[in-house]
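seq as requested:
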Amino acid sequence: MSAALWVALITFALIFVLRMPISIGMLVAGAFYFIVKGTPLDSVCNFVMSTYYTNYVIIAVPLFIFTANVMNSGKVTEKVFAFANAISGGRRGALGHVNVIASLVFSGMTGSAIADASGLGKMEIDAMHKEGYDDPFSCAITAASATIGPIFPPSIPLVMYAMFAGSSVGALFLGGMIPAILVAIALMIYVSIMAHLRNYPKAAKIPLKLFLQQTLSAVPALLTPVILLTGIYTGIMTPTEAGAIAGIYAIIISILCYKALSWSGLWKIIKDTVRDTGSVSLMIGAASVISFIVAREQIANNLGSYIIGLNLGKTGFLIIVNIIILILGMFMDTSTIQLVFVPILIPVASALGINLIHFGLVVTLNMMIGLSTPPFGMLLFITAQISNTPLKDVMKEILIPIAFLLLVLALITFVPQLTLFLPQAVGMI
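C-alpha cells:
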C-alpha cells in the first residue's frame, strides 16, 4: 500500500476510536490521502458528482424516507397494528405474532428498519407490556422483526446496493420477498416456543364483525405496497417514480382517509425528511470519496485476485463475507458497512460468478442482523429507549432471535434460488 493510503487508514482508525461521525471520518481520511498524494480536489469532486449525485436511482432514497415519515406521523401505524392483531387469531403469545406480522406489512410501505422500530415499535411494546409480556422479550422481538423492513420491498438499502452494483432495483425487490417471509416465519416459531415456555397470555379471538371493521379500515394503508409493486413490475413506473407515488399516496390517505395529518404535521415531516436526506447524502458523498481512493489504489482488483487465488469458490467466499459483515455489524453502523465495504466486495463476487441479486440480498440481510447485534445494534438502543427497559436485559434477550435470523441467513446463502426464483420467474434476470 502507498504511504498516502496508510495515512488515510490511520486517520480513519483514530476517528473511529474517538467515536466521531463516520461520514466526517471518511472525509477527513480522504482529505489527508489527497494532500499526501497531491491530487487536485476538483477531480475528486467531479468523480463524486458525476458518479453518484446524477444517479437517477438514488432519488428514490429521500422519497422512501419521506413516505416512511408520513406513515409514522398519522394513524397508519395504528391501522397496520390493528389489522395484524385481527389476523393473528387467539393463539398463545398472539401479540408476539402481531409484532412480526405488523412488521412484514409495514415493511411493504417504508423499507426502513428504523422506521419500523421507532413507529410501530412503541405501540407494540406498550401493548405487550399491558398484556403481561416481559419487557426485554417485547423489545427483542420488536428489534428482530424490524429487520424485515429492508428485505421486503420496497427497501432503502436495496436501492443503495443497486446503485453500487448496477443491478435491477425491481429484481432486488422481488428477490427479497421470499427471504423476508422466511424471516417472519422463523421469528414466529421463536415466539411460539417462548410463549409456551413462559406461559405468555392467550389472546381472545376477535369477533368477525370487528375483524371486518379493522381489515376494511386498514385497506387504504395496505394498498400502498400493492400500488408500488404493481407499478414497478408492470413497467408503469420505475422504482424512483414509485417512491414519489408512494409519498403522494401516503399524504392522501393520511389526510382524507385517516384525517391524521395537519399542515404543521406535514411541514415537520418535510423538515425531518430534509434532515435525514442530508445525513444520508453526506454518507454517500463521503463513501464515494473512499470509493475513489479504492479505485485509484486498485484495492478491489488486488483483493479479488488474492481471494480467487485462494480457490475458495463461491460458497467459501460467501461464508467469509458473512463472517466479516457479522463481526463488523457488532461494532459499526450498517450504512458504513454498505457504503465502504460492500462496494469493494461486489467486483470480487462478480468475478467469482456469484449472481449479484443473490449477493445483494445476502449482504443486506446480514447487515440488518447487525442492527440487532450487541453491543452497538441501533435497534436495541431504540427499543430499549422507547420502553425504558435496561439495555443489558434487551441484549441478553436478543441472542436467541439472532440465532433464528442467522439460520435464515445461512439458508439464503446456501440456496441461491430462494432469492433468484421470483426474479427469474418474471424474466427480470
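The mean pLDDT is 84.
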